[in-house]
# Entry
Amino acid sequence: QMMKHAWDNYKRYAWGLNELKPISKQGHSSNLFGNIQGATIVDALDTLYIMEMKEEFKEAKEWVEKNLDFNVNAEISVFEVNIRFVGGLLSAYYLSGEEVFRKKAVELGEKLLPAFNTPTGIPWALLNIKSGIGRNWPWASGGSSILAEFGTLHLEFVHLSHLSGNPVFAEKVMNIRKVLNRLDKPEGLYPNYLNPSSGQWGQHHVSIGGLGDSFYEYLLKAWLMSDRTDEEGKKMYYDAVQAMETHLIRKSSGGLTYIAEWKGGLLEHKMGHLTCFAGGMFALGADGAPKDKTGHHIELGAEMARTCHESYDRTSMKLGPEAFRFDGGVEAIATRQNEKYYILRPEVIETYMYMWRLTHDPKYRQWGWEAVEALEKHCRVDGGYSGIRDVYNNHESHDDVQQSFFLSETLKYLYLLFSEDDLLPFEHWVFNTEAHPLPVLHKDDGNTEENQK
# Structure
């Protein structure tokens, strides 16, 4: 019902545009997608399919066939377009078998290739998909590319090679690993900034939240998606978790485990909502953890889930802030006004879903249901769902954006949390960082040419 409310209103007021403004009942276009349109449609395809919303899926597919156009003169975020558009199209193809989605995914993948035309092959953050000219975010340390952005292409690009028979996509992302493996890591940690020209780190900031997050997720998932044959990805992941445990993971005086941010050796005791995905990641990786560490990784996941649940529980609205702190006597609470907002983010629910599937402890469903009730009470408006400016306030101040990832991730993870485990089982599917399921590539999948027929 939530999906239907979000979708019907998008369709009514913003059809074909990127996102919906549910209060003003009109379209919203973020500059992340340049002039490419239809982000909500492409992001929601697999959710519609999984929820068996067949009519809606059919309308969405027809829109993609007729209107999804990448021949635009515009600068896009390589990362956002990859995880939402390429990821969304790949999943829609694998779930439905509809050829249009494969064709569009490969076409878009080809448009993204010029981003890799740098001295090191570390891609630019921003790309004009008409001219093929790339650059980095002007605010990023010394012209650097961002770890979470160039580190979150691997799953999609491996599948693009698999579906197109063109090895270049997989080669581009394997080269990123080569560059990273040649570099010295401060304390075994990966800084958030890497200069694509010099191949050297920018400032030594490390975060498992924004700027870093999905890089780590993709190391683990690359190994899982390869049917556990990608030993390099596996080693990089478990080594990184070891370094996190040593340098970033801390326990508050109130007994909450959290992941701090590292700035040139100094810890900032703050954790972002984005970092809350890590509970699910630790649990998902528990099974392959080094000698007898499985229980420890599950425990780490459970502790993260609890901390992130506390960040929700300690607000008036029972929805979590963008970031929360562990200093000056506060725990799991946002202390700065610009960290008190909630933009319909999925990461906490994502962790509940993984923890439920891997432990079947009923509290994760209970916590998920608390989030459903809070979303219905505070974020649902006549025209869809809106983010909130201050979750500690008793009166809603809506931000008037229904993010495409609300349909792609938040609602999908909630649906999976309350579904049977055999819906998209983990042994066959790996979710990209936008919750788009991609199949595990089994060794007996045959050669790519055969798969194309």
